[in-house]
Known about the structure:
Helix 3 crosses helix 4 (108-122), helix 4 crosses helix 5 (137-149) and helix 5 (137-149) runs parallel beside helix 6. The relative contact order is 0.17. This protein is of the alpha/beta class. The strands form two sheets. A six-stranded mixed beta sheet has the order 6-7-8-3-9-10, sandwiched between helices. Strands 2-1-4-5 form a four-stranded antiparallel beta sheet. The longest helix is centred in the middle third of the chain and has 15 residues, at 108-122. The chain has a single domain (2-9, 16-239), classed as P-loop containing nucleotide triphosphate hydrolases (Rossmann fold). The protein contains ten helices and ten strands.
Amino acid sequence: MIEFQHVNFAYEKDRPVIRDLSFRIESGESVGLIGANGAGKSTVMKLLLGLLPCEGQILVDDTPVTKETLKTIRRKLGFVLQNSDNQMFMPTVYEDMIFAPLNYMVSREEAEKRVDAVLARLGLTELKYRHNHKISGGEKRMAAIATILAMEPEAILMDEPTSALDPYNRRVVINTIRELSQTKIITSHDLDMILDTCDRVLLLSEGQIVADGPAGEILRDQALLESHRMELPLSLSRRE
């Protein structure tokens, strides 16, 4: 469903951030994109969303990501930002959730049904008319996920979805992610969360993929992780 073909990108000339990057993610896969700070994880997300130009080709359902196809591409991809305050920009949860469907020419009746169905599915019905500035960080993160689900995207991109959450809300978010049927790409330094939610891991280092395989195998490879400035998930460290 998603494919990078020999993609290169640099914010500054002669200082590449992404170098000859190629990978393919099939429909329905749950993939963790991991790496130390500066590895290029967030840049990969921005490239996929067409927010940055690049050399090479990026495909979504065999459609190249270009200026001409961005509207079509972005209807297929839902992006949950690391900072929910940057995503929830309307006064209430309801207004945020219905905004994108209406802008995608979904009828108000259908959009209302989507909002109610998603809130019920996530157990968030009581948040529907709550003001965004009056809900907790965990509630806002869940509401941000609900906003994306109301768009009914084919794939969901998540940037550090559990950052700054308390243990209870972190577990709620993890359980929610695990239940989503869409294709998922998740970037995070929370490797325990990646282990809990992803079947496959891409390890990025200096803009290149240095490992690609089952999450359980890569996240148990202490030598591999440490050689790229990462550590074992805490749950595995305790077992060791």
